Amino acid sequence: MAFQRRRYNYYNRLRRLLPLICAVSGALLILFALLSILSPPPDDSDRRISKQIHYDEKKNIPVVFTVPRGGGKLDRDIWRSWNAEFFHGCCNASTKFPNAKAITRNDRYLAIATSGGLNQQRTGIVDAVVAARILNATLVIPKLDQKSYWKDASDFSHIFDVDWFMSFLSKDVKIIEKLPQKGGQTWSPRRMRVPRKCNEKCYINRVLPVLHKRHAVELNRFDYRLSNKLRDDLQKLRCRVNYHALKFTDPILEMGNELVRRMRKKSKHFIALHLRFEPDMLAFSGCYYGGGEKEKKELGTIRRRWKTLHVNNPEKQRRQGRCPLTPEEVGLMLRALGYGSDVHIYVASGEVYGGEKSLAPLKALFPHFYSKDTIATKMELKPFSSYSSRMAALDFLVCDESDVFVTNNNGNMARILAGRRRYFGHKPTIRPNAKKLYKLFMSKENTTWEEFASRVRTFQRGFMGEPKEVRAGRGEFHENPAACICEDTDAKAKAGKMDSRKLGKKNKKDDEQNEDEDAESSETDYEEDQTDLQDRGLYNGTRLDYDDALSVSEEPELEEMLSD
């Protein structure tokens, strides 16, 4: 009986406590639910850190991939190229190059209609002058493309100083602003096109007979219509046009120089980055960056606007180095090359895919992050903002004047600036060795930062804009104007007594390896004898070569999208 009474009392007390236990439990559940709703999700940096901790299989110890804030101590000056002082631009005409007055025929007029964005049109203007010289013709100031993708109403005089252009080249080619009148009416030219990479003989055989008959010819969609392989005197003329005669108008120069001045006011040195991570760029590349179905759907919708673009294997595109690096990957590459978080970066870019979310890792690595929109007011940019070519010209000027220029693709702006910076003192110009870096980025969690940075520096040899990085005659001439760069051999011989390491002497094996890499990623689209049209429409190194493979009526905007 005593046992039953104790058991009854125990259950009685438990029954009284049960509502209290339920109430407390319910309150805790509600509290946890509210906390789960109100607390922010873990950000990308948290996830990255968790991924960066792993165990060394051999030593069974944790290894952390930690990115330092500083660039570390290197055996080189990160703001200048090795041996740059021994090279200089040289493009003066030789004594064997006759004056334009002696060779120009008064009954031959060459008009040009360029194609694409600002920098693609720039190549057309440069080559137009040389074509006029080959034909002994008077050149009419080229027409800029106002109808294709860029929809920019600017003409030549809005972008470039016409008077300077005509006077500077007066000894090389006779230039007029418009065709003369014939019988009281403006001369009507015969419109025609020449194939890509047309050489001197090609112009003489194809265009000269028409000039003899009609006296005035207009070459349409004129871009990359002149061979890379010309006589040195014609190559030097190309350089005189590109690096001296083509000067931006005063309003563009003044605003561009002001942007440079403001960057210099912030820091003694700065990097200019041509990011090229726009939605159109990524859609054309056919690459995939891990954004799931949302990314595939968005970029796929853009890609379908161009029916001739075939379906690519995104993984293969990345493996072959045909995709732009992500903003974070660009930042990691720069940190590995020795640029710390105190470095100031000017970004020349359109709309970045993913917006601030994509830019956040790059800004975390380099918080001093600027663009023309952040260092100039809307009122200051108003005269330019409605014209894509004028806005591109401002970015061009800042990138040209930067201490280091970084390109994330190898389109027209990147090529022209690379060549220009070689000509004017081999200022550092970094182009990612995307094929090698991709593998490294994919496996970075399995290595330490020190190992990662060392391999980045190894892979980037030959991609830094240093003298003789690319063999003369290899690649696109506007990128590698070897005929216009002279070496001061006497000064170099005197300096030869110094430690060869201080002069940047490189391993022959490295040079051969990097030349092979450069041939793959930079030259493929510009080979002289390329004839397989099935390959002409493929995305290759972010340079599209569609024009001979497709009719203009089918894809009028196809080529311009990626070129600038």
TrEMBL record:
The chain crosses the membrane at residues 20-38. One of its GO terms (biological process) is fucose metabolic process. Residues 512-532, 554-564 have a biased composition (Acidic residues). Residues 496-564 are annotated as: Disordered. Pfam families: O-FucT (PF10250). InterPro entries: FucosylTrfase_pln (IPR024709), GDP-Fuc_O-FucTrfase (IPR019378). Keywords: Carbohydrate metabolism, Fucose metabolism, Glycosyltransferase, Membrane, Transferase, Transmembrane, Transmembrane helix. GO terms for molecular function: glycosyltransferase activity. Belongs to the glycosyltransferase GT106 family. This is O-fucosyltransferase family protein. It comes from Arabidopsis suecica.
